[in-house]
Amino acid sequence: MLIKKRVAVVGAGMTLFRRRMLETGREMCWEAAKMALDSAGLTLKDIDCVVLGTAPDAFDGQHMKGEYLLDGAGAWRKPYVRVYVGGGTGVFVPIAGWWHVASGLFDTCLVIGEEKMSPCHPHPQYAFSTIWDPILTRPLEPNLIWIFALEMHRYMHKYGIKKEDIALVAVKNKRNALDHPCAQIPAKITVEDVLNSEVLVWPVQRLDISPVSDGAAAVVLCSEDVAKKVTDSPVWIDGVGWCLDSTYWTNRELAYPKYVEYAARMAYKMAGIHNPPKEIDVAEVYDPFDYKELHHMEGLQLARKGEAPKLTKEGVTQRDGDLPINPSGGLLGVGNPIGAAGMMKVCEIFWQLRGEAGKRQVPDARTGLAQAWGDLMQVGTVIIMRS
Amino acid sequence: MRKVAIIGVGSTEIRSTTPDVSYKEMMFEAATKAYEEAGIDPRKDVDSFITSAEDYWEGYSIFDEFVPDQLGAVLKPVFTVSADGLFGIINAYMQIRTGLIDIAVVEAHSKASDMLTFEGIVAFALDPIYNRPLGGHPFYIAGLEMMRYLCETDTTLEECAMVVVKNKKNALDNPYAAFGAKITVEDVLNSEPMFHPLKRLEISPLADGAIVMVLAAEEVAKRLTDTPIWVKGVGWCSDTPQLESRDWGRAIYAEISAKMAYKMAKITQPQKEIDLVEIDDKFSYKELQHMEALGLCERGEAGILLREGATQRDGDLPVNPSGGSLGCGNLLEADGLKKAMELVLQLRGEAGKRQVPDAKTGVAQVWRGIPTATGAVVILSREY
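^ Those are the sequences you sent over. The predicted structure of the assembly is below.
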């Protein structure tokens, strides 16, 4: 493997994350894109191609949603493509953007993640009724919280993890989000608040879950030559990895996300990282549920199996800890517009590595990681960035 | 930068309905054939899998959940491009060029026979505020576009009908094709009026089928096959999704993608340097409009070339020797991949009765159909 071309992130932007945005999906795309372009000091004329990510069409009731969003994404009369790996899409879009530039075909690429979940009535959860195998699973009328409850239960059971230790993640992330200007549900809460919140599907409770959101986030990628011209502080994409497990989630050991491990190993190999907990300074780990942050830290080799709760308890994953996890506030605090949520994490790593994260700034961050997860507990996407 | 070649193709038969198999079984059949041809084991040798699909065609949300097992892609890098299979080829091409990936697999399929309300699904692709409430079968957009094209270029209804006659005849020699037929211009013009001026036979019928392709970097390709088919150029482009503000007479998306692909392939005179083309003919007039957009003739001349026989299989510039979508069937997101597959077979000299003599370089082009203005172009050659 010999990768010849380096790709830099030179600008980032995002909209507010909210339960119901008045803007259309197209408008949100453009708002985020414009902000990313402005921060890079570029205009749409400088952009050679556009890559967009957004999750199920069922949220908007719009077939070929990529086509529908394309002019808002600034892709008019440009090479444009929508890529898709379910919930993992947010971190996958910049990976696809990376190969657009690293292939040598383009010098600049605008990368956008968008999601508008609110048009789906009575609740966006309804869109998930069609993600199941139509013969084997759909007739059971499951929803997503069911299967994540199964996974959470299995994880707790296998390693003897207590709910109060998992609740610490929600407390940390919602507090971190207090410093994020776009955050949807930042809050100062306690472990007791989490444990006393409404039970949805045991062991999942209201405060274990990220909210339903609308929002968009964007970054601008460019080749080394262009990066040198437009900025003094590019952030380099040094590793990418993605991996999809079998459709048959019922046959999987749910206690450990092997697909995240494989995706991470692919990215670490490319970035030349041998000791992830030492070499990664800051990580944005996918946290649509509080236990997922722990689960994914283990998959990413940032903690040993079953030991992520211990690190959390010891404060290692706090912003001022040895291994800050989700300094943005994550999905639990900032919000979870699916296709945009992973992109928010990529933006956060960009701002952290540039030292532009304001009150959220983690000291001395040189290498950062963003990860997302999705489908039927099935896909891992990982990106590694360096300043 | 690395060169990229297609080293294996596999396909199911293309049929109007396939009640005996699921889409998973179809994907498995095509994948097995492609892997065998390329001499690879998907579990060991393939670095990246790409499928091309849209949720609403499939009747799922998050369709990419359902692809890995039947492709031998479990716990491997897999993703879905929400576009035609040609976009799959393009992304595989870029992945390989980066150096990260050595062998990539591209899949696309259509199980259109499972759809109960095709026009309803297409209507959901229209703008929900401005266009969808107008109702009707969205193919009226094709009728309007055809009218504009005929009016701007003086192309005649007979010439459009001749496209159907030619492509359906070509399809008779294609074992993969579902809709081969010997018909006349009168048959086309006398068929049921659908979306004025489009007649029933000018609309490509939907079909089922799955296609899988294996792409590899130069050094791997040369090790695995004696007949690599090289990807010389790629281009893709989206014009506006707004019906109200697009150019209805010209296929701008095809013009821009072709320009990009020709530049990459260093083709300056497409008419001379290209030996055959497989271009989008989801509607009869689209073949002519796309020929002009690809610079294969001047504007308004495609119909004349057709009448002179130049686009017949034995003509100077064979267009859609496979039978195109009119003859093989419209495979939705697999349509472009099927066109690329025909080029691979033609350039290898394996196209049987359909063989175009001495074919060295070919162009595959696709349009994503109503109501989009998005398309892609891939240039393949047996020589680099």
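The longest strand of chain A covers residues 214-223. Chain A touches chain B through 67 residues (CB under 8 Å).

Shout if you want it in another format.
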